[in-house]
Amino acid sequence: MEETTPSGRPVRVLVADDEAMVRAGVRAILARDPHVEVVAEAGDGHEAIALARRHRPDVVLLDIQMPGLDGLTAVARFHRELTTVGVIMLTTFGQDEYITRALEEGADGFLLKADDPRELLNGVRAVGAGGAYLSPRVAGRVIAGMRAHRSAHPHRSLDRLTGRERDVLAGLGAGLSNAEIASRLHLAEGTVKAHVSAVLTKLGARNRVEAAIAAHEAGLIPSLRG
């Protein structure tokens, strides 16, 4: 199903990459979806932030290695200064340290340029609707890394979560927005928002991506009730 923003309008996207040919390719892929609109292009992190302030996109696609201000530094500024903008890292570099830092700095998604173009569309739709998204290859590596860490450090328990909070966590693991979780669980969107906040606090998760990974680790995804 094609997704729009919670308001029902197209997902507005800003593409930031220092290579014009890459930006053109991304724009061409996104143009396949009538519910996605590219509103601006930037060649570095500074320009991306300036254009985001002007155009107020729903999603920014950030390359990691750019001149002036790189994507990893820029995502931290977006997280602090433009909190309504969802940020997806779109990069050639899939090293674990890049993935980890991007998520720590507040990225809502991580995609590789070598991924299937459908992953780009899926990621933009998910983050534009208020969710989070990792391409399958990235998600597999993140989960493997967390499992390795868990073997050395006991993972935070889900025992503190209520049954409803576990349902909401399952929705986060499925990459659903608050509105979609509310629809599936027959709750008000404001109630879901409160549950998400409680889940993040109880798990000590910094963002929806970390919560989603915890849901995958706990095997909660099939438990989401429709």
Offer a few descriptive terms.
single chain; 226 residues; alpha/beta; Rossmann fold; Arc Repressor Mutant, subunit A; 2 domains; 6-stranded parallel sheet; 10 helices; globular
Description:
The chain folds into two domains: 11-144, Rossmann fold (3-Layer(aba) Sandwich), CATH 3.40.50; 156-223, Arc Repressor Mutant, subunit A (Orthogonal Bundle), CATH 1.10.10. Helix content is 51%, strand content 13%. It has helices at residues 20-30, 45-55, 71-81, 96-104, 117-128, 136-152, 163-173, 178-185, 189-203, 208-218; strands spanning 11-16, 36-42, 59-62, 86-91, 109-112, 133-134. A six-stranded parallel β-sheet has the order 2-1-3-4-5-6, sandwiched between helices. Strand 5 (109-112), helix 5 and strand 6 (133-134) form a beta-alpha-beta unit. Helix 7 (163-173) packs across helix 9 and helix 8 packs across helix 9. It is globular and about 50 Å long. 41% of the residues are buried. The model is unreliable at 151-155 (pLDDT under 50).
Q: What is the second-level CATH architecture of the largest domain?
A: 3-Layer(aba) Sandwich
How are the strands of the largest sheet arranged? Answer: 2-1-3-4-5-6
How many domains make up the coordinates? 2
On the 0-100 scale, what is the average pLDDT?
84
Task: Indicate the overall shape.
Answer: globular
Q: Largest sheet, described in full? A: 6 strands, parallel
Proportion of strand residues = 5-15%
Number of helices: 10
How would you spell out the order of helices and strands? EHEHEHEHEHEHHHHH
Oligomer: single chain
Regions with pLDDT < 50 over 5+ consecutive residues? Answer: 151-155
CATH fold call of the largest domain = Rossmann fold
The CATH class of the largest domain, by name, is Alpha Beta
